[in-house]
Amino acid sequence: MINNRITALRAMEILDSRGNPTVRVFVELSDGTMTSASVPSGASTGENEAVELRDNDKKRYGGKGVLKAVANVNEKIAPELTGMHAHDQAAVDYKMIEMDGTPNKSKLGANAILGVSMAVARAASMSAHIPLYEYLGGAGARRIPVPCMNILNGGEHADNSVDIQEFMAVPLGAPNFREGLRYVAETFHILKGLLKSRGLSTGVGDEGGFAPNLGSNEEAIEIIIEAIEKAGYKPGKDISIALDSAASSFSENNRDKYDLKWSGAGKTDSEGLIKMAEEWVSKYPIVLWEDPLAENDWKGFQQFTKRLGDKIEVVGDDIFVTNTNYIARGIKEGTANSSLIKLNQIGTVSETIEAVRMCRDAGWRHFMSHRSGETSDTFLADFAMAMDGGHLKTGSASRSERLAKYNRLLEIEYELGNRALYYWK
Ligand code: PGA
Ligand code: ZN
Question: Are 276 and 230 in contact (CB under 8 A)?
């Protein structure tokens, strides 16, 4: 019998990259293994995400404290999970789902549950002396994801005049991960110089990309293309572009009416945004577009996918919230051809794996993602490897909570040596 039963679980309140409280969970196993995991937190959240339990005590952190979630781990989850085998991830996760009893984890809190779920997975891998990516993904987990680096931020992640939340540089033409990371990190530095030379701000947004005030959304793409070329790379060949509109954040009715309010471009509808996208996709080397429409604009999404789905990867984030109920509907209705995957949108490692499996079974891609509020935890890097989606987004070439994941992938590539794979599709 493997000697890795859970002997202790405890949680504490720590701060995330925005200085807001989040949950860190510590776990101990009977063989002496001790480790921890920390939970991320989003800003442009989908309305159907699992509930991040906050204290709502205005006297602490403006109500954002997580002491209730911490107490739920210490007082409720720990006694129930003690004695369970750490390698039995599904049993651990489903025990917590059953204890919570709500469809959105609002009783115990998805932040409490996910912290435990991740910490247990990590402890089990350590106890088995297998790297986390291999423990979760098996011997086939050899493909390092292409780093979609968010070098220019807008929307709710920045205080500037750009509506689209994320402009990502995608080094799909690089021979391996470390070269790919170099391509886009160099582009990031060149972009800084270009912004500076035009008297624009080089301050960064929540995910470490620059957040300048620009004349239009299109200007953001054009300056990125200029940076790619100036860095010595060929746009569309070495480095392509991915976008996350996070369109719910500029939708007026959270459905089909929009207001490009930050840029001042004004009001439009689903058709207006789709036409804009068609024009951009024909003009610029765009390979992926996330949340081009709002989370309740299922019809708009379907239309977008019909018209652009054979040219680019159409990713649903807020609309699917890593939840198999919504992904299943999306597959049935042809809403997209890929789903964003965020562990804390659904709240356990096991359910996240199920969401990935559903995408794969339908011939969809999946796109692994961090949150805008992060910690230095590198779980995501190993998890992206294990799920083998071929690409991930975890911010820019600044802010250590973002670099921690990229650096972990460098480490994994080094560890795998010539067994490491790297390719876009
Ligand atoms: P969030 O942003 O973590 O603030 O939700 C990331 C995204 O929209 O993809
Ligand atoms: Zn998104």
Answer: no
What are the boundaries of each domain within the chain?
6-129, 146-419
Helix (H, G, I), strand (E, B) or coil at 246: coil
258/270 Cα distance (integer angstroms):
8
End-to-end Cα separation, the chain, in angstroms:
41
Helix 400-416 and helix 379-387, axial crossing angle in degrees, nearest 10: 50
Catalytic residues: 207, 342
State the distance from the centre of ligand 1 to the C-alpha of 168, rounded, in angstroms.
13
| Structure tokens, 156 | 């709710």
Name beta bridge partners: 239. Answer: 235
Please report the atom of ligand 1 found closest to the CA of residue 370.
Answer: 3
Q: What is the pTM of this model?
A: 0.98
424 - beta bridge partners?
Answer: none
Measured from the alpha carbon of residue 371, the closest ligand is: 1
Instruction: Quote the CA–CA distance of 135 and 413 in Å, as a whole number.
Output: 16
Can you tell me which atom of ligand 1 is nearest the CA of 340?
Answer: 9
User: Token pair for residue 10?
Assistant: 């405890």
Fold held by 146-419:
TIM Barrel (3.20.20)
Q: Distance, CA 157 to ligand 1 centroid (Å)?
A: 8
Report which DSSP code applies to 384.
Answer: H
391-393 vs 146-147, strand pairing mode: parallel
pLDDT tens per residue across span 53-102: 999 999 999 999 999 999 999 999 999 999 999 999 999 999 999 999 99
* 3.40.50.2300, 3.40.50.2000, 3.40.462.20, 3.30.390.10: CATH of 6-129: 3.30.390.10
What are the backbone angles phi and psi of residue 37, rounded to the nearest 5°? -150, 150
Least Cα distance to 386 among 347, 348, 344, 357 occurs for: 357
